[in-house]
Design goal:
Elements: H1 3-25, H2 28-44, H3 53-72, H4 74-77, H5 90-95, H6 101-108, H7 112-123, H8 128-135, H9 139-166
Length: 174
């Protein structure tokens, strides 16, 4: 991969890398750092990464692994602020099913691997085979993580709906 190829890859895939990190952390600053780290790693390993589908898979896998590495740092755990929404490019808002605040919080509460699988499945619209190749895990394991994560989110959504049904209706007064 030449420097020109590298620049082209960055321009073409920076939104994808940032989007994965942003959905993982819900923090624009941390997502930017992760994206920079991933592209720095790509630049350092550019001779080993082929252009095309291999490069996209490499970027996705590296981004997810870098996100997991960052979450394991003790200092990061004190920085997470799920309530603060990241700045996401306008064109990403139309295509991202994870932008609903309640769903975003529920996904943020999932364990790392389940969160990664959910983000790749629903934000990046990858199928189980692609996720398995990206995260280097068997397809059945991907399906297990998807099923467990979906069950957890359904339970939390039901609990949330029940809590909101018990609250009195609020009316807006001018």
């Amino acid at each position: 991969m030449t420097k020109a190829d590298f620049e082209s890859v960055v321009r073409e895939h920076q939104k994808m890398v940032y989007g994965i990190a942003c959905n993982f952390f819900h923090n624009a600053a941390i997502a930017e750092e992760v994206a920079q780290d991933v592209f720095l790693q790509l630049f350092e390993n550019r001779s080993a990464v082929d252009l095309g589908a291999h490069c996209v898979a490499w970027l996705r896998r590296s981004t997810v692994h870098r996100c997991i590495d960052v979450t394991r740092k003790a200092s990061f755990r004190q920085e997470i602020q799920v309530e603060v929404l990241p700045e996401i490019p306008e064109d990403a808002r139309e295509n991202d099913p994870l932008l609903q605040e309640g769903l975003r919080r529920m996904i943020a509460s999932l364990p790392e691997t389940q969160r990664s699988v959910m983000i790749l499945r629903f934000s990046e619209d990858m199928d189980a085979d692609e996720i398995g190749r990206t995260l280097q895990m068997p397809v059945r394991t991907v399906w297990s993580h998807l099923q467990r994560a979906t069950a957890i989110i359904r339970e939390k959504a039901a609990r949330y709906a029940k809590e909101n049904d018990n609250e009195p209706l609020r009316t807006r007064t001018s």
